Description:
With 71 residues, the chain is mostly helical. The chain has helices spanning 4-24, 31-40, 60-66.
Amino acid sequence: FSGTSSATPIVSGVVAVLSSIAKEHGKKISTKSMRDLLRKTGVPQGPVTRRERVGNFPSLEQLLAKIKVKR
């Protein structure tokens, strides 16, 4: 269980939660904005990110701060 097999459910879960919380606060996040938010936030996945393109591990806390929503 690695690569896209593990990344897909993690990222889609974060996207679903963030979209739901944003909606509760009267905000809507476009697909492009969501992609940009995911790329600009998160926790690097170790030294492998220096050699090849591996996305950050999503941080819901950072994402909520970016869209200015308090938990």
